[in-house]
Amino acid sequence: MWTRDHAMPALTGTVFIGAFLLFSMEPFIGRILAPLFGGSVYIWLICLSFYQLMLLIGYIYAHFAAKVRGYGHILLLILSLTLLPFVIPTEIPTESHHLLSLVLLLCRFALPFVLLATTAIITQIWLVHYRPAEDPYRLYSASNAGALLALAAYPFLIEPLLGLRWQAIVWAAGYALYVIFAMLSYYFLRSERSGKDSQWENGFKINQGDKPTRKHFAYWILLSATTSALLVTVTQVIASDMGSFPLIWIFPLAIYLVSYVITFRNNCITYRLMSSLYPETILLGLLLFLIPATHYILHIGHLIIFLAVCILIHRILYEERPNLTFLSVFYIAIALGGLMGSLAVSLAAPMVFSRLWEYPILLIILSLIFFNRYAKTPLSFRRRTSWPIHAARLLPIVLLIGMIILLGRYSTAGTLQAVHRNYYGISRVIDAPVAGKGQATVRTLTNGSTIHGVQFLDKEKRSLPTLYYHPTGGLADAFAAMPPAARIAAIGLGTGTIGAYTRPGDVLDFYEINPDIEKLARHWFSFLADAKGRASVIIDDGRISLHQYTKQELLYDMVFVDAFSGEGIPAHLLTEEGMNIYLSRLKNNGLILFHITNRYYDLRPVIKAVSKRLKLHGAMKSMLTVREESSEPVRTDYVVLTLNTTSLQTLLDQSWIVLGNSDGIKECRSWTDDYVNILVPLATKMNLTIFQDKS
Questions:
Q1: Phi, psi at 639, each rounded to 5°
Q2: Which domains does the chain have, with CATH numbers?
Q3: Nearest alpha-carbon partner for 52 in 81, 87, 26
Q4: With bands split at pLDDT 50, 70 and 90, how would you rate the model's confidence at 189?
Q5: Radius of gyration, CA atoms only, the chain
């Protein structure tokens, strides 16, 4: 006869392993899909919505499955093993219906994800049925511990050590272990019969007076939707600036989980202080919304605000929880609210709002919820203290309101000419004088906080290449090395500045994934129209389009990869597979030129490692120059690769440095579609050595 000592360890192990697998599966799937669809942060936002949908389906399934004998659930777990290990796509899909492809890919992972999503609720309901005296929320701690460990392990341990195929194999082994623990848990609990089978068969005996009403259900949905929507919004803000990688994705998601750990317990002191400071929290969030996110300190600020909000909202959820009889209904409401909030931001907001207006709207909704719940808390501060202390308490509120008003009126430096928003971000065209440069006035294209091109408004200067493409930089050197009537492929359009370098007879093919960028470049900038060569724009992912042409006689003198000035690094453009596609479209003496100027990542080690694997020759050029079109010195970084060393000689005469043992670049492992380690370029930029991977 099994004892109580066997059941609880088995249940705890089931919940812990299930949560670890569930939350390591999230970045794993995102990592698979991101390169297949251009590396946009939008893919991760869609993944978050998919996860919320799978959670909802899992909770609904658990609501009904847990009230009958568990043999059917155990059988379904065993059958799901036949789907493992996951099949990793070996190439980028070339069909135009990317959304359909995304849905089909996500469906491959649906069943195991749904079953894992049921773990916490099914085990808690099993425990409530067989051991009514036990507190089922004990298992909640194990679930959160497993989830947080997975989120921490994936970017810092799993991804740097394992490629996607090995991740799939190891994950499948872990899933098999999870199924074994689930079987043992159910068997051990069933062994403690003591006449409880009849209660299981007859279902719950409930007090109808304790049954949640529609008002309760709607309130749970509202609370869950607000934090889920804010999770997607904050993730979008940070990932749009720092890149769409598991390393970036996990921070908001981990905070979201930590808030549940803090609040879903009997004693929670943290929320009491937070409830007193909710006015400052909301006002600080509004202030951060008005400040361009150009530094990681601002991202930390967004995360702190997000944590404070989640603690307050999730504590209300805990305090409004129903009788344990309705535990599954409670979780269904949370999952439904999470799905609604996630879809509202990831799908609806880009179609409704031209800017990130969902952020302040969510903060206003949250302020109303907090006022309804905690209105007396800040006011009670006055009764407990003297008036000088109370005045000091109001001072930061007054200052925050003043700063919000000032930034709201003067946040745009210059005249906003156009703003476009789609699933690739928010693009703005702004006319403004250059600070400290006299009468110089420029037109700038930005996406998020990143500048994608600048043009002088003065007719005499508007044809001059600017910023990263200035006449003394790496791009000018590369064009000087091109033969007459050259054909150039450019991945990334921006304002089309490189059109200023074309000569009569040149052919310049731009590959741009964001359709709004072409509209803005043609309407508000003249680089394309004034190009002396023939310039055309193909709307598609550059790597996908070039791959489609592999069977055609279309060869380029130069492939210019210029998709890295924004902080959302499309890693699939830097892999060995991507490089082979560029080489297939290159003439014998052609050049592959990378513009890799970036605030957060040094991509030189990655490019050098790939070139070494493919036996290519390379050189690099970095400059810091003072430009008339910029109030700050302009940093530019270029790397060129070629199959022929003679092609490099012209560049070496222009002070380029040969890639080799004495170039000062740290060694790292080459990136492939299967393996990417974003910690290497991040650590290199920060002059750290702990994450350098030489394997």
A1: -135, 135
A2: 7-194 (1.20.1250), 210-381 (1.20.1250), 468-685 (3.40.50.150)
A3: 26
A4: confident
A5: 28
Does pLDDT of 348 surpass 60?
yes
Q: Which phi and psi angles does 434 have, rounded to 5°?
A: -85, 125
**450 is written with which tokens?**
């990143």
What is the number of other CB atoms lying within 10 angstroms of the CB of residue 681? Answer: 27
Q: Is the peptide bond before 388 cis (omega within 30 degrees of 0)?
A: no
Distance CA(558)–CA(590), nearest Å, equals 5
- Report which of 531, 527, 557, 567 is spatially closest to residue 446, judged by C-alpha positions: 567
End-to-end CA gap in the chain: 51
What whole-number distance in Å separates Cα of residue 603 and Cα of residue 638? 10
Checking DSSP bridges between strand 534-539 and strand 617-625, what pairing results, if any?
Answer: unpaired
Round to whole Å and give the CA distance between 319 and 263: 9
Place of tokens 């080690």: 605
Of the listed ranges 154-158, 216-220, 644-648, the least confidently predicted one is: 644-648
Q: Which residue has the tokens 């731009």?
A: 510
Per-residue pLDDT reduced to its tens digit, 218-253: 999 999 999 999 999 999 888 877 777 788 888 999
Q: Which of 652, 648, 551 is nearest to 591 (CA)?
A: 648
Burial class of residue 253 (count of CB atoms within 10 Å of its CB; 0-12, 13-18, 19+) = buried
Residues 6+ apart with CB under 8 A from 609: 667, 668, 669, 670, 671
H helices of 354-496, in order, are 358-374, 376-384, 387-410, 474-480
Q: Cβ(235)–Cβ(49) under 8 Å?
A: no
